[in-house]
Amino acid sequence: MRFYEYEAKEVLKKYSIPLPKSLFVKDSDSAFNAAQNLSTDVVIKSQVLSGGRMKAGGIDFANSPEEVKEKSRIILELEINGLLPVGILIEEKKKITQEYFAAVTYDGRAKKPVIIFSDMGGIDIEEVANSHPEHLSRTHFSAARPFSPFTAKNAVAAVGVTGRELNQLSAIVTNLCNLFLERDLTLAEINPIGKLEDGSIIALDCHLDMESEARNTHSALLAEIGVPEEDNRQSRPPTQFEIDAANVDAADTRGVAGNLTEFDGNLGLIIGAGGGSLTLFDAVRAAGGKPANYCEIGGNPSVAKAANLTKLICSQPKVDKVAVMMNVVSNTRVDIVARGVIKGCIEAGFDPAEKIAIFRIPGSWEEEGFALLERYGVDYVDRSVSMHEAAQRAVEKMKGI
Amino acid sequence: MPAMFISIAIEDSVHKDQELCNRLVSMCPVDIFEISEKSQLITVEENLDECTLCNLCIEASSDEQIKIEKLYRSDSN
Lengths: 401, 77
Ligand code: SF4
Prior knowledge:
A: alpha+beta; Dna Ligase, domain 1; D-amino Acid Aminotransferase, Chain A, domain 1; Rossmann fold; elongated; B: two-stranded antiparallel sheet; two-stranded antiparallel sheet; 25% helix
């Protein structure tokens, strides 16, 4: 669950992270009053859950309340990546002499949180990582033990920051890590952190993402910063494909089949098991494939549920083939999923042998499942073929290799 | 759509044993059996493909009173 910048800044404030003064408003008259209140040059920032605000014209500067009013009116009506802002943030404009980057997230490979710090803030951090790796540090820490400020200091010092800046930035990073751990965040990023002419350091823009499942745990905080309970924070409204898939899942309580996110590609995906869905999705993309959807399946769904999901995916005009791939399964049965996907294909009017690019689900009842797949001529592989190899095969089939 | 993968045959003798019929209806985990208006044990067509092959119905009956056929297997293993 992503926070708007104005909400995220309220949260940062609670963790004593220094910020410029700002006021969140919803119309241009209030923007005028806010600018009068701040009585300085200001930045007007569109509050929209999308990146690329600056490029899209969602951030502008103004020197007088009149100018703020005029520019606010334009920004409030400006759609960014299909989204209209919920309001604007009127913020003091600060003179910056140096920019830094600090983020805390989980490193899936290391299975630990990681601090990413750079003394080249304000620009795309991937670019810094590629062209100036010496300006970026990655410091892992434990999510199980209390956070040590020494770890933050190491992360900042690793890119050569010293003296007063080191102390100030270490304090910010320490607070950011505590916020990350205490509030079940998946990402806590401040970019840029700005050093002002007087040497003080403040957070200029930030991005916080909270585990959706943690909303109940932090309901008091969310209420305090004004996040309504019913606000699901999707970055865009669900597509009809996604709604239909959710309905398939909701109609039958057995297992999971329908947690779907739509993409632009042509390869339908039915994937899952023990984190396998993310791995497989990435594997398809790494092999040059273009997924039409992300969709988890697991928990032993009924044949009817797997069939309805498959039918839905196969029926999308953009879907040329589907790949059915999972990690090794134990409670989900291979034969039940095989029955479901074959039935779904046929019900959608397709030959499973043609429509299913690959079936790779090893595990319980696989012998029965493989017999079924053989009977219908579906290309299947067992656990001797890795998830990455299976994804590669599916992509090659799409390309007619 | 008719069942594609599973077919279940019920021998006539089953219908005479109401207790067995009731037991089969209640024990099948995927509701494949039901009692018809004529008090006969019948299968629910749309649930047939959900058969988990748990064999509970076979164990509860005797002498091949219930036969399950996997339509996708030529050897019907
Ligand atoms: S084998 Fe199990 S699931 Fe299948 S019909 Fe018999 S009791 Fe029902």
